[in-house]
């Protein structure tokens, strides 16, 4: 069967972000993305500070920028230059705060934490709010996030939900880390691990990857955040969502699928996963790449297990995979693709 090139091309796009800061270009690694999904994309954000890529593999393309002097501009972030409105505030966005089950301030102002299995955001005492801008409406919501110290440095996992009525395509997340002196320490950008396939020109054109309305996509950084980020010294985080809207797309069946996933515990709360990767496109792939995010009871990502097998997978072909280990298997998992 001939190898048909599957392309993600941009026509007219609306950027779902304010053009905040010039710390980070946010461009994910499009080379690794196209090799693992069979999709080819030249899509980038039209803003100066962030970019967006398609694909189900994004961790290798995350971008961090250190800044020990800059403070966030109060004219664009809505904080008035004084950080978050309340030290007891929990993470979320103005378009659908998912933190209702997280830590709260009691009637006496005392900070109260909830069990981690019920928490949408870790650490619970560090707010992570939407960076308000003046360009358009925000359809995406930071549903959950985990910021923890790992064996190779600080690790950061996010879950983003589409609370709008139309798909958001080629999306990414930019996060700003601010310390107790209200100084921007670093920013981090990465493309989302997308699972929903669409096709342009009312189903006859090129393929693109999006977050469908109501669906959730993940991001992860396991070793590329700068050491200047010290969790105990953070005051608050802010985030924004570069992404694109296409009005001529229709949903199609997934071109890549992960099935028959088996959880293999190691006896200490962690473990790994096995399963089957299937290429349902008409393009032969050179790599079978899978990412699996264990989640807690409310869907907060706890880590990421990965598998990358350099093997030719023809159209309709399948390959068995076994992922890397994760320290906490949680209560469930989300796969990408």
Folded structure, characterized:
There is one protein chain. The protein has helices spanning 30-37, 74-77, 200-203, and strands at residues 6-8, 39-41, 63-66, 104-105, 111-112, 121-122, 128-130, 140-150, 153-162, 168-169, 172-179, 184-191, 196-199, 207-211, 216-221, 234-240, 250-251, 256-265, 271-279, 288-295, 305-309, 318-322, 332-336. It folds into 2 domains: 6-250, no CATH class; 252-336, Immunoglobulin-like (Sandwich). Mean pLDDT is 75; it is low at 1-61, 73-82, 85-101 and 104-108. It has 337 residues and is mainly β. The strands form 7 sheets. The protein has a 5-stranded mixed β-sheet, with no helix packed on it.
Descriptive keywords:
337 residues, mainly beta, Immunoglobulin-like, 5-stranded mixed β-sheet, 4-stranded mixed β-sheet, 3 helices, 5% helix, disordered N terminus
List strands and helices in order, with pairings.
Layout: E1 6-8, H1 30-37, E2 39-41, E3 63-66, H2 74-77, E4 104-105, E5 111-112, E6 121-122, E7 128-130, E8 140-150, E9 153-162, E10 168-169, E11 172-179, E12 184-191, E13 196-199, H3 200-203, E14 207-211, E15 216-221, E16 234-240, E17 250-251, E18 256-265, E19 271-279, E20 288-295, E21 305-309, E22 318-322, E23 332-336
Parallel strand pairs: 1-2, 6-8, 7-16
Antiparallel strand pairs: 3-12, 4-5, 8-9, 9-15, 10-14, 11-12, 11-16, 13-14, 13-17, 18-19, 19-22, 20-21, 20-23
């Amino acid at each position: 069967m001939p190898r048909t090139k599957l392309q993600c091309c941009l026509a007219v796009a609306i950027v779902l972000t304010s053009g905040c800061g010039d710390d980070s270009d946010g461009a994910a690694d499009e080379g690794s993305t196209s090799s693992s999904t069979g999709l080819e994309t030249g899509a980038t954000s039209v803003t100066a500070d962030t970019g967006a890529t398609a694909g189900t593999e994004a961790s290798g393309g995350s971008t961090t920028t250190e800044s020990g002097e800059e403070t966030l501009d109060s004219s664009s972030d809505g904080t008035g230059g004084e950080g978050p409105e309340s030290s007891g505030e929990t993470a979320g966005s103005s378009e659908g705060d998912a933190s209702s089950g997280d830590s709260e301030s009691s009637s006496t102002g005392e900070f109260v934490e909830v069990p981690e299995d019920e928490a949408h955001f870790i650490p619970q005492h560090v707010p992570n709010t939407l960076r308000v801008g003046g360009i358009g409406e925000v359809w995406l919501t930071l549903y959950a996030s985990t910021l923890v110290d790992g064996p190779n440095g600080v690790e950061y996992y996010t879950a983003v939900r589409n609370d709008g009525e139309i798909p958001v395509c080629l999306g990414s997340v930019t996060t700003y880390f601010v310390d107790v002196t209200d100084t921007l320490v670093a920013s981090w950008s990465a493309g989302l691990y997308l699972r929903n396939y669409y096709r342009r020109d009312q189903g006859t054109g090129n393929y693109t990857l999006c977050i469908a309305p109501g669906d959730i996509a993940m991001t992860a950084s396991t070793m590329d955040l700068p050491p200047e980020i010290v969790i105990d010294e953070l005051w608050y985080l802010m985030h924004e969502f570069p992404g694109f809207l296409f009005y001529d797309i229709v949903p199609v069946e997934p071109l890549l699928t992960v099935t028959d996933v088996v959880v293999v515990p190691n006896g200490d709360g962690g473990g790994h996963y096995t399963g089957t990767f299937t290429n349902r496109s008409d393009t032969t792939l050179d790599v079978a790449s899978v990412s699996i995010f264990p989640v807690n009871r409310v869907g907060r990502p706890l880590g990421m297990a990965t598998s990358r097998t350099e093997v030719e997978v023809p159209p309709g072909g399948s390959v068995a995979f076994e992922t890397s280990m994760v320290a906490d298997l949680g209560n469930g998992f989300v796969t990408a693709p």
